[in-house]
Amino acid sequence: MNKKEWNVLGAVIAAGLMSFGGVLIETAMNVTFPHLMQEFNTDASGIQWVTTGYLLAIAIVVPISAYLIRNFSVRNLFLFAEGMFLIGLTMNAFSPDMTVLLTGRMLQGVGTGISIPLMFHIILTKAPLQKRGVMMGIGTMTTSIAPAIGPTYGGILLSTLGWRSIFWFLIIIVMVSLFIGLKSIPAETVKRDEKFNFVAFLTLALGLSMLLLAVEQMSATWLMISLVSLVGFYFANRKRMLLNLAIFKFRQFDMLMYSLLVYQAMFLGLSFILPNYLQMAMNATSTQAGLFMFPAAVIGTILAPVSGRLLDRIGAKGPITVGLTIATIATVLMAVFFQSMNFWVLMFAQMLMMVGIGLSYSNLMTTTLGSLPEELKGDGNSIVNTLLQFVAASATAIVAQILASAVENDAVNGVVVGAQEGVIFLATLIVISWCVFMVARRKIA
């Protein structure tokens, strides 16, 4: 590789490491929830805001990433994101109560909300076309594998050094990312001639926030406020475009994106359900609950770049079809036989599901964005990543509510019943996703 290609790779790794840290912390905190519920005197539906609030911050920031990328240099955006993330981590490492903990988590969300679309922007605009599949495999590996590694990372540190060490060790990863980024991302001059549509941004942020509250609390009031806000965003966006909603006119894009969103729901939903189920129903330690996710993470890490190379050589249709089919079968089996599965059988089902996800996720991301015209890919990147984060937050809130409701109705068997109901919910989504993809695959090369 020449110097330019090395710089592109370094930029992808720098943004990818930060994105990895951001996604890692999403699920690393899940194994701490039983401990934090006691320390901060709250229940499952309350403590899940440690993750949900973070994901909501990401979902609010990501929509403006296209505007930010058009009006600020990649280097400046990278440095700002690093700063927000480091401040948030430091606050969390010292947090004395839930308020400080949530504030720090939301600052981390701002940093992650910039770094994830920035990473994909670098890949789509800077990477050579013949190496784009591999680069996308590396990029998506950071965001797809981290949810599986998170519980292992969090569980080991929780049981050895305490939950605050989760943030301290992550600071090291972010500092490595900062060093690589400073070396590989060049300073650029960007002409700022575009006005920011504050009305569209505020109505979108309010709409997404209220919609998440509606999902979390099953509230018709929040739902109505959300719908009014989103209608307001639609009209404000037409006057001065914050996001180009024309991307939804492309049917192929819509169908492929649905499968992407389901995968995201699977990642975060199962990453919440399984560690809590293992600790609360199987009496596993936080370390055991964390290590449970590790073999699947290793499989995903190996397969993500392999799937990118397959895309470069044979196209996306085969790897996505095989991967999605395997993931669907594994999830359905887990849903049907959940209560009869012991620790090891459940781990095998999780590993099998990760084989499917590893084969298909990065190719699905590449193909989804590739189905758009070149001039719409920036907006497509922003909207896809916005919806991915919102779906992650919603999935976490929904399965947390399912689990909390089951425990409230049956204190003895509620955890087992609620966990299985959560998996059934996710299995239903992926079965629908498989059916939708079978229609969409006809037009995939």
UniProtKB/TrEMBL annotation:
Keyword field: Membrane, Transmembrane, Transmembrane helix, Transport
GO terms for cellular component: plasma membrane
Compartments, as annotated in UniProt: Cell membrane
Topological category with respect to the lipid bilayer: Multi-pass membrane protein
Domain named Major facilitator superfamily (MFS) profile: residues: 7-445
Pfam families: MFS_1
Main location: membrane
GO molecular function, one term: transmembrane transporter activity
Keyword check for Transcription: no
Transmembrane segments: 7-29, 49-69, 76-94, 106-124, 136-154, 166-184, 196-214, 220-236, 256-277, 289-308, 320-338, 344-362, 383-403, 423-440
Protein name, as recorded: Multidrug resistance protein B, MF superfamily
